[in-house]
């Protein structure tokens, strides 16, 4: 019986939890690189595919994860051979010691403040990626303007985010409440959500895809919603809990004759994928 391969994201998470252990970190890096060559399951396979498809055979692109969280995507990109991968976030979840342990010398993480210019020169990145970040950004115009400022002419952005018209909100785990005005949302979230309404009102800033595209057009020459392409692609999973469900949905969306109908229904209820060119 063929041995089931582990999910790479979880293997990296485990290594991050053991950064103080005395082990051969270069050997661990080699094991991860070998694992990636076996086409294992990856929760962040879709953002990796977007970047791989754009870059082709070249690994010389300078990449920024704008709101990188724990930095799992950064590590995956570095393991795949992209040497210039950088991350920023307003919270320090990324333990930079893993970059030193794995000897990724051209990679970095920087802690930033909201509504403060990014610590990079103009036109210094080829690719900017962002996943499940924009719903937490209050000043959306500033976020897009900074992304455009540090992006090289012809550079691209891959932004994934839940939007205002998506009926289910995974943060509050509630249906439709985010459709209501702020005051009503607070009351309903206080009753039904796992966090209190005041916290969610100060943490969650959902906008429509139209709003995102309207702001993006101020700073970018081209914008395209690629949510449909993501839905049609297999193994698009970001969250562990949705792993099997997303495989089933991808299968339904690719059925002959009726697949497109399923895809168009699902895309209305899914997070958005916005592709931008400067």
Can you give a write-up of this model?
- It is a single chain.
- With about 280 residues, this protein is of the alpha/beta class.
- Helix content is about 40%, strand content about 15%.
- It folds into 2 domains: about 10-165 and about 205-275, Vaccinia Virus protein VP39 (Rossmann fold); about 165-205, no CATH class.
- It has 12 helices and 9 strands.
- Strand 2 (about 85-90), helix 5 and strand 3 form a beta-alpha-beta unit.
- Helix 1 (about 10-15) crosses helix 4 and helix 11 crosses helix 12 (about 260-265).
- It is globular and about 55 Å long.
- The termini are far apart.
- The model has no long low-confidence stretch (mean pLDDT about 90).
Task: Give a nutshell description of this structure.
With 278 residues, the protein is α/β, with parallel strands linked by helices. Helix content is 38%, strand content 16%.
Supply the helix-strand structural class.
alpha/beta
- What topology, given as strand order, has the largest sheet? 3-2-1-4-5-9-8
Total of DSSP H or I helical runs spanning 4+ residues: 12
CATH fold type of the largest domain: Rossmann fold
What separation lies between the terminal Cα atoms?
49 Å
Defining key terms:
alpha/beta, 2 domains, globular, 16% strand
């Amino acid at each position: 019986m063929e041995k089931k391969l582990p999910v790479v994201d979880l293997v990296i998470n485990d290594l991050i939890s053991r950064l103080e252990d005395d082990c051969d970190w270069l050997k661990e890096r080699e094991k991860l690189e070998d694992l990636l060559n076996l086409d294992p399951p990856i929760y962040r396979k879709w953002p990796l595919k977007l970047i791989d498809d754009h870059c082709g055979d070249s690994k010389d692109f300078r990449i920024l994860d704008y709101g990188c969280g724990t930095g799992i995507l950064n590590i995956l990109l570095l393991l795949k051979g992209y040497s210039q991968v950088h991350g920023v976030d307003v919270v320090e979840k990324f333990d930079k010691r893993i970059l030193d342990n794995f000897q990724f010398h051209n990679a970095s993480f920087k802690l930033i403040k909201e509504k403060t210019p990014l610590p990079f020169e103009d036109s210094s990145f080829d690719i900017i990626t962002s996943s499940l970040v924009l719903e937490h950004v209050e000043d959306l115009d500033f976020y897009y303007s900074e992304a455009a400022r540090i992006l090289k002419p012809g550079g691209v952005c891959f932004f994934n985010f839940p939007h205002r018209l998506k009926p289910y909100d995974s943060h509050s785990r509630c249906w439709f409440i985010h459709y209501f005005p702020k005051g009503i949302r607070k009351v309903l979230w206080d009753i039904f959500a796992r966090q209190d309404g005041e916290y969610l009102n100060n943490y969650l800033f959902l906008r429509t895809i139209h709003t995102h595209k309207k702001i993006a057009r101020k700073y970018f020459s081209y914008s395209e919603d690629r949510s449909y392409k993501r839905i049609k692609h297999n193994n698009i999973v970001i969250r562990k809990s949705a792993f099997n469900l997303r495989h089933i949905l991808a299968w339904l969306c690719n059925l002959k004759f009726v697949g497109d109908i399923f895809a168009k229904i699902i895309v209305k209820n899914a997070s958005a994928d916005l592709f931008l060119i400067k």
